[in-house]
Amino acid sequence: MRIGLWIDEEGKTIDEIGAAAKAAEDNGIDRVWFSQRLGWDALTLIAGVAPYTSTIGYAVGVVPVYPRHPLALAAQALSVQALTGNRLTLGVGASHPHMVEGMLGIPMERPAAYVREYVEALGPLLAGEPTDYVGERLTARGQLEIAGAEAPELILAALGPRMLKTAGELTAGTTTSWAGPEVIGSFIRPTIDAAATAAGRPQPQVIAGVCVAVTDDPDTTRNWIGSHYGAAGDMPSYRAVLDRGGKAGPEETAVLGDEETVAKELQRYADAGTTEFLVCPVGTDAEVERTIRFALEYA
């Protein structure tokens, strides 16, 4: 199981983010991850940060498929590939009703079916192949040619059975949120593996995004996670995975404690079939620094 590091970009300059990516590279981290939130555009950010490094991989987890058309996203992703020397992992996902419908005013009807159409159209475009895709709700016709750009690795954020089936059949794997090792081992890993096997594809990646704090005060940090991320427990896809793991809220999925405790929890994820443990540092500034130091040393 390799170690990935999520870099919190909120409120930071490109120089600060670039320095964090460079430190990760110098300490053996395979790839760093960015989120698509309400600030930096994640793909543009990756293109801007890449010159600060030379070998580390970059991933976005994830770009919402609403309202980006596959042709537009493929053109942006391949442009980033050309600018970074082909170091991009492209994660896509459905997002959530309060964002898609509430913020954008776009109906989010049958999202799993829409995401499947989207990935079916996106894959050939990322490979530079001519595409003439007509689905129930999505049409994509054309071909993209960007010199030097290879098809980026494609990952799908999948937590439920239909999304995991799509991820296993059509992508390199999945990235999860709020899924503990018990859920990965008993549900996510066997479900995505079965889909990949039936489609004649290799075993998919399972990238577990987890809030982590190397701390001597786990209760305080757990309360902090509950206050900052507790609303995620009301989002349907997250609520389903939390219920599957018997968790009341996101704070109960965090990995908290001293270095020895955190290392033992990471082993549980590895034993469950996680291929990459994505460390998302949380807590006070001192805890975040301690957590990042642990991740760099553990890698």
Automatic annotation (TrEMBL):
Signal peptide: none annotated. Its EC number is 1.-.-.-. One of its GO terms (molecular function) is oxidoreductase activity, acting on paired donors, with incorporation or reduction of molecular oxygen. It is an enzyme of class 1 (oxidoreductase). Residues 4-275 form the Luciferase-like domain. The keyword Oxidoreductase applies. Coiled coil: none annotated. Gene3D superfamilies: Luciferase-like domain. CDD domains: Tetrahydromethanopterin_reductase. It comes from the Bacteria. InterPro entries: F420-G6PD/mer, Lucif-like_OxRdtase_MSMEG_4879, Luciferase-like_dom, Luciferase-like_sf. The keyword Oxidoreductase applies. Keywords: Oxidoreductase. NCBIfam families: F420_MSMEG_4879. PANTHER family: 5,10-METHYLENETETRAHYDROMETHANOPTERIN REDUCTASE, PTHR43244. This is TIGR03564 family F420-dependent LLM class oxidoreductase.
